[in-house]
Design brief:
alpha/beta, 13-stranded parallel β-sheet, disordered N terminus
Length: 1179
């Protein structure tokens, strides 16, 4: 469909919409079927541009709203409809040269706009002429003898040159039987002058003279003889000029605009030269680069798109050819021969300093290619360079150039299905009966556009579901060659052999495992620290938020296919065997070989899949033949035979469900880095030899394990996991001598540290020594510990097991959940402690003087806990979980919530009259963790030095405010203070009803002398449906108010409340009486006594709120303008994004940043077994 036909279809659609919308009125639609323009005349007052805007939006993304002010700026407006705009003087050339030129352009396939109306238009250009110029890629200006006598021609010329300046519009002048110098100097017929009362005004004439001078200086054609040969040259020039601009894009683009919108701001940032689009092979990097290029090339003087650089550089003269192409494109001249790469780099550097260019370098593999093509010199600040690559490493770290990185987003489920269906069925949705099969294919590709396109096309010729199933089943054994061909290039580009080997090991055995765990295992042989970093930088590997190694399925299949090709029919001849069916056959037949470096067998999984694995005995014979075996994973496998001849290179032994009671004495373990015997039948664990290399020992869920002996024979042990070893009663005392042990997990070891077990060990020692022994713990924790898990151990704080951790100065994470103690010793000596989990400690009553370095505290369902204090007296926690603490009344520096019944009149001060309502009930809301299960009797909240309470709609004279308003705001002037009294503060009250489920409101007080406070209480009362509630808050700000100050009080409701009345009363006090009252102790004389800097906005106002309302806004439950309602338009809501319990987000302590993602790391073979602290505690 041509551009004109497309616009005609849109116009017809718009006509039908307008006629429907305003039918019956005096409306006139003028539409020329041969053009793309519509004029609407209406005398209907209600017809408004917004109607046309809404109709335009209903047409979809391809409609364009032309607007003179922004047509150059928006990508949509830059969409071109014509190849060429013809500018000419009709009376000179309309029926001769211009007509022949128009015909020649059309025969060359160039869509050309020519104005066919011969009458003189008068003063103004018609709108369609302006639009046509802007919608054209190039203009041909035919300058003939009488050209300059037409204001129409001159105005068109000025617009054409403006388009050239702003959007790289190509302009070709044709000097038709005229001398260019006459035009440049405005001689003869090109002499133009000001004429009164005409369009030849002074300003216009000046503009047009400059336009004539400019066009005369452009390279063009001077025609003075036969015209035929010139026509061909003109057409060829225009064709060649336009042909090199745009690049081809595949049809049916899916999701490109969404990704483009995320990086569009880069185009408008000066001095940010580079955009690096990174991503795995086939992810759409090149397509996105083309999309950006095609939408924006018109804004630049010169442009170049160089494709597939990495492959083209491999040739003998590949890099030189690329330099020649790039230099020609950005210089705008002819292709020049470059004698050497260094010479070419220098010439390109020179061109980049002056030219405003758009450059795309596609498929860069190495930084050296980038340097050879662009150099390291200065680049024009308005130039933009896009590179697509799978590898950026730190290319720009030490460069003067600035680069924005964009990680290519793979397609989501809906986008994937649409792209696949377009290739497989030629439509957006699956054909009938193929829905589930299409979904299976889409899942296989995991959003990779290349995979979706290739797989969809390969299935398009299969007409039955049986053929589809057969082809999809094949994918479990092999990967399509077109997909593998692209992904193999990434693998082969790895600079070192050990990095390729590392990639294959991870693809076969370690996807989903904890990265630190894998690094420890593979570092000795493959330099895994640097190798994994390289794989991540080259988009061959990624790391999840929980520190797991992740790899796209197609990349994993590519890696495994590389291994399969080592021996297609004989798995035992391969370097790695990961399929349990293959491993089972190898062990059953004893067919091990010297080539195998890694093997995994999961008998439980194999038995679940079917009866293929018979109950035949498996022996160690095959393993003895695997001399290079480094990685061995045996899940619930029982082997008979000798263990003496296992490979000495073994680094990783993961044997789930190990069936023997002790470690075989002949098993060579000297080079093991990680030993995982989770779910084993071991009764005693004792190393058979000194294990110098072993760093990780996991005996999780070994329920028969009773004792661990001679642990000192593993001198460099870093991680010891004894989780749920329920029967364990003794750990060798030498554990305290380990100098590298950083993580110890004893969760669920219920008999190890109990009072009874400690007494039993003491009796044994006393009887063996013949006398009394000093009380001491059954074992000591090593000095090096950083993370300690003692949850579910029935711990009590006793003299022999005091839980003081006095010799563990490096302790960062401590979990004592579900213990029996009532009190804990002071931990102010633990300067490194960041996370403390005491969840489910139901007897715990007080937590005092917690270290100021603590960043996370979890006390879920500590039912008896009443008070928490901190060493610094300030609340500094970044994460705080306290649900189910129904008796918790005070958290130092955070809040205090106490039942009125527990306060005496002295505590309440001027609010002592509230005592008579102490048995009234109010449902508190706002913080479910704090209010769930708590008494519904009236409570007093102390927060930010403000004391507040929520009441039912009581009638009491003490409730009558001094100043009152039936709206949500009021103002008053501070009067003189009564004699012998002083101003203490201000009571603010309001009556309200509830509407909706999200209650967001602030009480505000401001004065002209700098008081600007807005407060959102942590909890407040929720009255029943149709009932009225009362909020009363005392603000101890007397020392900030002066006589005559105007005080403004308001209740700003964002959502959920309706205010019926608000009031305020000044509170005075006798100095002597005030001294003993709680309200004074809460800070009355010094409202900013605590550090509230974290709650101060850039305007100076105090935003006294401990929650992040942005979360409600982002899920659509709060209007986007909520912050403007509160503070006005002076600052943006982003200032309170991420607002925490401590106010604005601060730069976190590096140790806390690390620990924030740390969970109970249990290095298991299945998934790394990362256990969420909080969820574990709640459960």
């Amino acid at each position: 469909m041509s551009c004109i036909e497309y616009f005609n279809n849109i116009i017809n659609y718009v006509i039908s919409k307008i006629e429907y919308a305003i039918g019956g009125t005096n409306t006139y639609l003028i539409h020329s079927p041969g053009s793309s323009f519509l004029v609407l005349l209406s005398d209907q007052p209600s017809f408004h541009p917004s109607i046309s805007n809404s109709m335009a939006s209903s047409l979809g993304d391809n409609t364009t709203s032309y607007n003179d002010s922004n047509i150059m700026a928006s990508p949509e407006a830059d969409a071109t409809c014509y190849d060429v705009f013809l500018n000419f003087r009709g009376e000179d050339t309309r029926h001769s040269f211009t007509d022949h030129l128009y015909d020649a352009l059309g025969r060359a396939g160039l869509l050309t706009f020519r104005d066919n109306d011969e009458i003189d238009r008068g003063q103004e250009l018609e709108p369609e002429i302006k639009i046509a110029i802007r919608a054209s890629k190039a203009s041909i200006v035919v300058l003939s003898e009488n050209y300059a006598t037409s204001t129409w021609c001159l105005e068109e010329l000025w617009l054409i040159l403006q388009q050239r300046k702003e959007c790289n519009h190509f302009v070709l002048p044709v000097f038709y039987h005229v001398d260019p110098s006459d035009i440049r100097k405005q001689n003869k017929t090109f002499k133009i002058e000001v004429e009164a009362s005409t369009n030849w005004t002074y300003d216009n004439v000046i503009r047009w003279k400059r336009a004539l001078t400019k066009v005369a200086d452009l390279t063009g054609f001077v025609i003075s003889g036969p015209e035929t040969k010139f026509l061909k040259e003109i057409v060829d020039t225009v064709y060649n000029e336009l042909d090199c601009k745009k690049v081809h894009l595949p049809p049916d683009l899916i999701g490109m605009d969404t990704r483009y919108q995320k990086i569009i701001s880069w185009l408008h940032q000066p001095n940010l030269e580079f955009l690096a689009i990174r991503g795995m092979g086939g992810s759409g990097k090149t397509t996105l680069a083309k999309y950006i290029y095609n939408l924006n090339w018109k804004r630049f003087e010169n442009m170049s798109f160089v494709e597939d650089i990495g492959s083209r550089c491999k040739g003998a003269h590949g890099l030189l050819e690329l330099q020649e192409q790039l230099l020609k494109d950005i210089s705008g001249g002819r292709k020049r021969k470059i004698p050497s790469i260094s010479y070419g780099t220098c010439k390109i550097e020179e061109a980049l300093q002056t030219k405003r260019a758009l450059i795309v370098l596609d498929g860069i593999v190495e930084n050296s290619e980038l340097v050879a093509l662009l150099g390291t010199g200065k680049i024009n600040a308005l130039s933009k360079i896009i590179i697509t690559t799978e590898n950026t490493d730190n290319w720009f770290k030490f460069s003067s150039h600035k680069c924005e990185q964009y990680k290519m987003e793979l397609l989501n489920d809906d986008e994937s299905l649409e792209l696949f269906c377009r290739h497989a069925f030629g439509s957006k949705i699956p054909a009938e009966g193929f829905k589930e099969l299409a979904a299976q294919a889409v899942r296989y590709c995991e959003g990779n556009p290349l995979g979706l396109g290739v797989l969809g096309s390969s299935l398009s010729n299969s007409n039955t579901t049986l053929q589809w199933r057969s082809q999809l089943n094949l994918l479990e054994k092999d990967i399509h060659s077109l997909i593998q061909g692209v992904l193999m290039r990434s693998y082969m580009s790895l600079p070192f052999d050990f990095e390729r080997e590392l990639f294959l090991h991870i693809a076969c055995f370690f996807i989903g495992k904890d990265m630190d765990y894998v690094v420890k295992i593979l570092e000795p042989d493959y330099s895994a620290v640097s190798g994994i970093k390289t794989l991540i930088n080259r988009c061959l590997l990624s790391v999840s938020s929980s520190n797991k190694l992740m790899m796209h399925r197609l990349l994993q299949e590519t890696g495994r296919n590389i291994v399969c090709k080592e021996s297609f029919k004989l798995p035992e001849k391969r370097s790695r065997v990961w399929l349990s069916t293959d491993s089972y056959k190898i062990l059953r037949k004893g067919k091990g070989s010297k080539t195998i470096e890694g093997l995994t067998l999961d008998m439980k999984k194999l038995k679940e899949e079917g009866p293929a694995s018979k109950a035949s005995n498996l022996t160690t014979d095959a393993l003895e033949k695997m001399e290079k075996l480094k990685l061995l994973q045996l899940n619930f496998v029982e082997l008979t035979g000798s263990h003496e001849n296992f490979s000495e290179d073994l680094r990783w032994l993961c044997w789930f469900g190990f069936h023997l009671r002790t470690i075989p004495s002949g098993l060579f373990m000297e080079n093991l880095v990680a030993l995982d015997m989770s779910y084993s039948n071991l009764e005693v664990f004792e190393p058979p030899m000194v294990l110098q290399s072993l760093q990780i020992l996991n005996l999780k869920d070994s329920h028969n394990l009773l004792e661990i002996r001679n642990i000192s024979m593993i001198p460099h042990l870093e991680t010891l996991v004894l989780w749920n070893c329920h029967s364990l009663v003794r750990v060798c005392e030498t554990i305290g001598e380990l100098t590298s042990l950083a993580l110890l997990n004893m969760t669920g070891c219920k008999h190890l540290c109990t009072r009874e077990q400690i007494n039993l060990l003491e009796e044994i020692k006393a009887s063996s020594s013949g006398g009394q022994v000093t009380k001491q713990p059954p074992f000591s924790f090593p000095h090096s510990l950083q993370r300690l898990f003692l949850k579910d151990c029935n711990l009590e704080c006793t003299d022999s097991f005091p839980l003081s951790f006095s010799v563990q100065p490096f302790l960062q994470y401590l979990n004592l959940g579900n213990s029996l103690f009532e009190f804990l010793p002071c931990y102010d000596h633990l300067k490194s402690l960041r996370v403390l989990d005491l969840s489910l400690c139901s007897r715990l009553k007080l937590l005092l003087f917690l270290p100021s370095t603590l960043a996370e505290l979890y006390i879920y369902y500590c039912h008896s806990l009443e008070k928490i204090t901190f060493q610094s007296s300030q609340f500094m926690l970044q994460e705080f979980g306290y649900e189910g603490c129904i008796n918790l009344s005070e958290i130092e520096g955070f809040l205090k919530l106490v039942s009125i019944a527990k306060l005496d009149e002295t505590d309440l001060g001027h609010l002592k009259w509230l005592k008579k309502y102490q048995s009234h009930e109010v449902l508190l809301v706002g913080d479910d963790e704090l209010t769930k299960g708590r008494s519904s009797n009236i409570q007093m909240l102390y927060e930010f030095d403000i004391m507040s309470t929520s009441l039912p709609n009581i009638k009491d004279s003490k409730m009558t405010p001094e100043y009152i308003s039936e709206s949500s705001s009021l103002s008053f002037d501070v009067p003189s203070c009564p004699k012998n009294w002083r101003l203490k503060g201000l009571n603010v009250t309001f009556k309200y009803t509830i509407s909706g489920d999200d209650w967001v409101w602030f009480a505000k007080i401001s004065t002209a002398n700098g008081v600007d406070l807005m407060y959102n209480p942590r909890v407040f009362g929720k009255p029943g449906f149709g009932e009225v509630g009362i909020w009363l808050g005392f603000w101890p700000i007397g020392n900030t108010l002066d006589v005559g100050d105007k005080v403004n009080v308001s209740i700003d409701v964002i959502s959920g409340l309706e205010v019926h009345e608000c009031g305020a009363s000044l509170v005075y006090t006798d100095d002597e009486i005030a001294e003993a009252t709680v309200e004074n102790n809460m800070g009355g004389e010094n409202f900013h006594g605590g550090d509230l800097s974290g709650f101060q906005l850039s305007t100076g106002a105090y935003y006294l709120c401990r929650r992040d309302f942005i979360e409600l806004m982002e899920v659509g439950r709060l209007a986007p303008d909520w912050f403007g309602v509160l503070v006005g338009d002076t600052i943006d809501y982003t200032e309170v994004r991420g607002w925490r319990m401590t106010g604005r987000p601060k730069q976190l302590n590096p140790s806390f940043t690390e620990l924030k993602t740390v969970r109970c790391i249990i290095h298991g073979p299945q998934s790394g077994l990362l256990e969420n602290r909080a969820m574990q505690s709640i459960s």
